[in-house]
Amino acid sequence: MTQKEIAAEFGTTRLRINKIIGQVRASGLVNIEVRTPLADCVALEERLKAKFHLKEAVVVPALTDLIEQQRTIGEAAGELLNSVIAGRDLGVGIGWGRTLAFATRRLVVMPNTNSWVVGLMGGVTRASLTNTFEVAMSVAKALGLECHYLTAPIYCSSSESLEAFLHNDEIADVLARTEIADVALVACGDLHEHSPIPSLRVVKDNLEELERCGAVGEILGYFLRADGTVVDHQINRSIMAISLDALRQKPVSVLASGGLYKAPIIRATLLGRYVNHLVTDEAVAQVLLNDA
């Protein structure tokens, strides 16, 4: 209730209520503690930074609606990106997924015109607002920058086809950009229906084997074990994407992902130290912090 509403309830003036509150607060009879969802989130952010050696953590309130949760995380990631890129010359690397697509809604500042955007991984053959190509292009459009992307599938069918792509000069140039980009914004996915990666035929055909090898999810298409190590599987050797070692070296690498079903792969990504910024939801933050 506001002071005005309290005054009306007791038939007095707002000024008198304000005076009474001041007196009891000064006497110590009443201790006023601010506890809001956002205050709780800020406390979680500091603990996440300390536990996982992060440069920055952003925690948003947990929501029951999946799309709304992705939206809030994505938009928070966009706000974080604004603070990083304003007025600078830099390369911005982008992954894929609905959460990252939502980030474009909050991109309002402009880097210097010498900056550029690059997709960090190959894409799928069908159009989708969450495809690498579309997400990278949306970010570039929002920032008024040129866009570069890997015109290749995420997974190549054989080591020979991967080598053929790598020997293409244009693709080699884009891969070089993924390596030198100053900033990376990525998401991660679980092994099941919530993530687009398992719907790809090559992943479907290998999913049971990946799970037997200990995979808990993927980041940029690379499947990780619970401890953050890369699964030793051919599919991880057929990826058209920036290397995880290069991702780990970025001055700014942001993981924007949430939902309890993603907690294992978010934890694995943090344990592998592949990113130094995290944007997630309160429920996931609690799970990550409650782990031994």
UniProtKB/TrEMBL annotation:
<dbReference type="InterPro" id="IPR036388">
    <property type="entry name" value="WH-like_DNA-bd_sf"/>
</dbReference>
<dbReference type="Pfam" id="PF04198">
    <property type="entry name" value="Sugar-bind"/>
</dbReference>
<keyword id="KW-0238">DNA-binding</keyword>
<dbReference type="GO" id="GO:0030246">
    <property type="term" value="F:carbohydrate binding"/>
</dbReference>
<dbReference type="InterPro" id="IPR007324">
    <property type="entry name" value="Sugar-bd_dom_put"/>
</dbReference>
<feature type="domain" description="Sugar-binding">
    <location>
        <begin position="38"/>
        <end position="290"/>
    </location>
</feature>
<dbReference type="InterPro" id="IPR051054">
    <property type="entry name" value="SorC_transcr_regulators"/>
</dbReference>
<dbReference type="InterPro" id="IPR037171">
    <property type="entry name" value="NagB/RpiA_transferase-like"/>
</dbReference>
<comment type="similarity">
    <text>Belongs to the SorC transcriptional regulatory family.</text>
</comment>
<protein>
    <submittedName>
        <fullName>DNA-binding transcriptional regulator</fullName>
    </submittedName>
</protein>
<keyword id="KW-0804">Transcription</keyword>
<keyword id="KW-0805">Transcription regulation</keyword>
<dbReference type="GO" id="GO:0003677">
    <property type="term" value="F:DNA binding"/>
</dbReference>
